[in-house]
Amino acid sequence: MLALTLTAELTGVTDLRPLDTSEEPYFYTFKVQCTSCRETHPNWVSISRFESSEISGSKGEANFVWRCKACKRESTASIKDAPKTYTHASPPTRQTIIEFDCRGLEFTEFQANGEWLAKGLETPTNFTAIDLAEGEWYDFDEKSGEEVSIKDIKWEIRRA
User: Fold this and answer.
1) Is the pTM of this model over 0.85?
2) 115-144 per-residue burial string, b: 16 or more CB within 10 A, e: under 16
3) What integer is the mean pLDDT of 100-119?
4) With the C-alpha atoms ordered 35, 39, 44, 50, is the resulting torsion angle positive or negative?
5) How far apart are CA 116 and CA 83, in angstroms?
6) For the chain, which terminus, N or C, has the lower number of CB atoms within 10 Å?
7) Is the pLDDT confidence value at 105 over 90?
8) In sequence order, what E strands does the chain have?
9) What is the DSSP letter of 51?
10) With 90 as the cut, is the pLDDT of residue 59 above it?
11) Residue 128: what are its φ and ψ, rounded to 5°?
12) Are 31 and 40 in contact (CB under 8 A)?
């Protein structure tokens, strides 16, 4: 089991999470490495919890099925549950966003492509279309009259 964790400084917002519904799935984007030959795939790969593929020679399915070009081994990854929200903490704490059951592969880097959502920390404001690809995000909460931000973003892939 691997977990994608996030540590970030949230100012004026809380409950940060990817927009990940069956109507609008989030595609988690990673660099992938074979655990057999340690070859790292040169391209980024994406995985959605709403898509699954058949596993060769098995009746099972996984959200991501990948064959290593170097050693030809087939590997799989499945997302265990819906993503968890990242809540405001001072100082910022590492929190798990999503967990993967990986067989024969490891995710080594994460790219925050896609839309994220958050709520105002002390207001009912909902923030949508948050883009974390640049490593920070700034906006203005009209209800509080304050600037809100997400910065010092650190993604880690750890053993769960």
Assistant:
1) yes
2) ebbbbbbebebebeebebeeeebebebeee
3) 96
4) negative
5) 11
6) N
7) yes
8) 2-11, 13-18, 28-34, 45-47, 53-54, 61-62, 64-67, 74-79, 95-103, 105-111, 116-120, 126-130, 137-141, 146-159
9) -
10) no
11) -125, 170
12) yes
| Neighbour-count burial for 73-105, b at 16+ CB within 10 Å, e otherwise | ebbbbbbeeebbebebeeebeebebbbbebebb
Rounded Cα gap, residues 144 and 51, in angstroms:
40
**What CA–CA distance (Å, rounded) separates 149 from 101?**
32
Model confidence band, residue 160 (pLDDT cutoffs 50, 70, 90):
confident
Average pLDDT for the chain: 96
Residues 86/116, Cβ–Cβ less than 8 Å: no
Residue 58 has pLDDT above 90, yes or no: no
Question: Residue 67 is which amino acid?
Answer: R
* pLDDT confidence tier of residue 34, bands split at 50, 70 and 90: very high
Q: Side chain identity at 96, as an amino acid letter?
A: T
User: What's the token pair of residue 90?
Assistant: 């001072």
Nearest to 103 by CA among 69, 64, 46, 51: 64
